[in-house]
Amino acid sequence: MKPILTFALSLFTFSLFAQDQQLEHKLENIAWISGTWHGEAFGGITEEIWSKPSGGSMMASFKLIADGKIVFYEIEVIREVNNTLMLQLKHFNNDLKGWETKDETVDFPLKEITQNKVVFEGMIFEKVSANEMNIYVDIKDKDGKIEIVKFNYKK
């Protein structure tokens, strides 16, 4: 009985270690983000569509619909920069007028990639299953206080 228990405990420990093991900062290690995702946030319906890695990047579009109307859009990219990855985005009103200036982007440098997480500074992608993920975003309120907003998405 003791060898079986030891073996089972070893397998459990190995599976925990494998999930937390850091992966190389390569697009192919985050390809699971690609797809069409739907969820709810900010009192409305959200849609985020991520492309598969190609040409050294992944791109996405995001939209928020509340009360049957578009509230805002985002264009996002994750691209290879200096042997790591960078997430960048721009926001747009419902009439496509940008929030950021022409040459300005909101940047999220990569911190780490594990089997089920992609951790950027200020944004985390968490794989729940093949058809579900959570995205956690640091958002500053009017007073500069940071609130973490969770987006739960399903394919």
Please tell me about this protein's structure.
It comes from Winogradskyella immobilis. Residues 31-138 form the DUF6265 domain. InterPro entries: DUF6265. Keywords: Signal. With 155 residues, the chain is mainly β. It has one domain (24-154): Calycin beta-barrel core domain (Lipocalin), CATH 2.40.128.20. It contains 1 helix and 10 strands; from the N terminus they run H-E-E-E-E-E-E-E-E-E-E. The chain has one helix at residues 2-20; strands spanning 35-41, 44-50, 57-66, 69-81, 84-93, 106-113, 117-120, 123-129, 132-140, 146-154. A 10-stranded antiparallel β-sheet has the order 1-2-3-4-5-6-7-8-9-10, with no helix packed on it. A hairpin with a 6-residue loop joins strand 2 and strand 3 (57-66). The longest helix is centred in the N-terminal third of the chain and has 19 residues, at 2-20. The radius of gyration is 18 Å and the shape is globular. The termini are far apart. Residues 5-15 have low confidence and may be disordered.
What characteristics describe this protein?
single chain; ten-stranded antiparallel β-sheet; about 160 residues; 10 strands; Lipocalin; mainly beta
Give the N-to-C terminal Cα separation. Answer: 43 Å
Kindly provide the radius of gyration, computed on alpha-carbon positions and rounded to a whole number of angstroms.
Answer: 18 Å
The pLDDT mean sits at 90
Numbering strands along the chain, what is their spatial order in the largest sheet? 1-2-3-4-5-6-7-8-9-10
How much helicity do the residues have? 10-25%
Which regions have little confidence, pLDDT < 50, spanning 5+ residues?
5-15
In CATH terms, the superfamily is Calycin beta-barrel core domain
Q: What is the count of β-strands? A: 10
Tell me about the largest β-sheet.
10 strands, antiparallel
* β-sheet strand percentage: over 45%
Given this structure, which CATH class is correct? Mainly Beta
How many domain modules? 1
According to CATH, the fold-level topology is Lipocalin
Briefly note the structural class of the backbone: mainly beta
Along the chain, the helix and strand elements come as HEEEEEEEEEE
Overall geometry comes to globular
Tally of alpha and pi helices? 1
Which architecture name does CATH use?
A: Beta Barrel
Pfam families: DUF6265
Domain DUF6265: 31-138
Keywords: Signal
Signal peptide: 1-18
